[in-house]
Amino acid sequence: MAVPVVDPPRYAEQLEAKRQRISAQFAHFEPPPLEVFASPPSHYRMRCEFRLWHDGDDLYYAMFEVDPEDPKQKRVIRLDQYPVASQRINALMPQLIEALRENTLLRRKLFQVEFLTTLTGEALVTLIYHKPLDEAWEAEARALQEALGIAIIGRSRKQRLVLERDHVWERLEVDGRTFAYQQVENSFTQPNAEICRAMLGWARDVTRDSQTADLVELYCGNGNFTVALAENFRRVLATEISRTSVASARENLAANGVDNVQVGRMSAEEFAAALKGEKGGRRVAEMALDDYDFSTVLVDPPRAGLDDASCAQLSGYSRIVYISCNPDTLAVNLERLCDSHRITRFALFDQFPWTHHCECGVLLERR
Questions:
Q1: Which of 227, 249, 264, 276 makes a 20 to 30 Å CA pair with 221?
Q2: CB of 33 within 8 A of CB of 348?
Q3: What is the pLDDT along the chain (367 residues), one digit of tens a residue?
């Protein structure tokens, strides 16, 4: 992986290049004009992980860069600051490394550090080791936690020691509303909080005036979109396969006072089978699928996109909101979905500035 070169004065130029690339890639679908949502040009990433590099008495954060001429060779890049990461992470980096350098017990066999922060300054730090963690480690880690004003988790083989809590609470202002999200360590969350706010605002905008019908959401994760969209619909049924994410989604719905959502632990494939009557069981019965009138489906799949069966399932809905982290698989899926639907809104979210990655949002409505 290449370490991004952050150059804020050139941000508009790199964003324009992405706009042109995405517009050209999807031109044959004849979408409406691309809506472009800019990221902060630096300090936008709320979570990061670094290797800890031991060099004699020195200790520093590191990332690896692959040699383009020899992919088997990796170059160690020392990082004392990281302008991609949030201001809170950058403030913590020197404080944490200085404390670790001076503490033989905490630094011994420490090989990775993970930061999870929020816009309001909460910070959770995970220290990952090649050694068992004992009571002496815990005592030193608790002292460090107190000194830095953070929460610490220690990880090692078959060990996970949570000293205070295993999550932070992010608060995002969208459309004059504040939504609270529990974000659990080692679980997926949107890394760019400001772009996440933009995505939620866009998704709320494209689904307004839907209160007489219902939403089904696939791959709902921790309820990121679910919480923000619930008031736009009569009822919402959200599905997710990860047990941790389902628990977090339910926690987030309760924290935001959302009472018209049901979250089911089920894969998108299993849910498709349940809709067809091909899958039964307790979890399907609890969903009471006959009680819903789905007008809209929201899907936020992994980078691999959707398979043909999932595309066929989506084609049955009047309206599709497709959030994509991979334009290439999105384009493949749209070849199928545009047989029955047309693109009426199209957005580019610059989730990862200074990289080639683009996040897209597409609203499709039945022809």
A1: 276
A2: no
A3: 567 889 999 999 999 999 999 999 999 999 999 999 999 999 999 999 999 999 998 999 999 988 777 878 888 999 999 999 999 999 999 999 999 999 999 999 999 999 999 999 999 999 999 999 999 999 999 999 999 999 999 999 999 999 999 999 999 999 999 999 999 999 888 999 999 999 999 999 999 988 899 999 988 999 999 999 999 999 999 999 999 899 999 999 999 999 999 998 888 778 877 877 777 788 788 887 888 999 999 999 889 998 888 898 899 999 999 999 999 999 999 999 999 999 999 999 999 999 999 999 999 999 9
H helix runs in the chain, sequence order: 11-25, 87-101, 104-107, 135-148, 193-206, 224-229, 243-255, 268-275, 282-287, 308-314, 327-337
Check if 325 is active-site: yes
Please, what is the Cα angle at 181 between 179 and 185, to 5 degrees?
Answer: 165
**Overall size of the chain counted in residues:** 367
Rounded alpha-carbon distances, angstroms, from residue 77 to 22, 50, 52, 80, 129: 31, 10, 11, 10, 21
Assess whether 359 carries a catalytic annotation. Answer: yes
Burial of 299 (0-12, 13-18, 19+ CB in 10 A): buried
Q: Which of 220, 325, 338, 358 is catalytic?
A: 325
- Look-up of token digits 């011994």: 108
> Which pTM value belongs to this model?
0.93
Q: Which two tokens stand for residue 287?
A: 């969903």
The one catalytic residue among 170, 194, 240, 359: 359
Q: Is the CB of residue 213 less than 8 Å from the CB of residue 237?
A: no
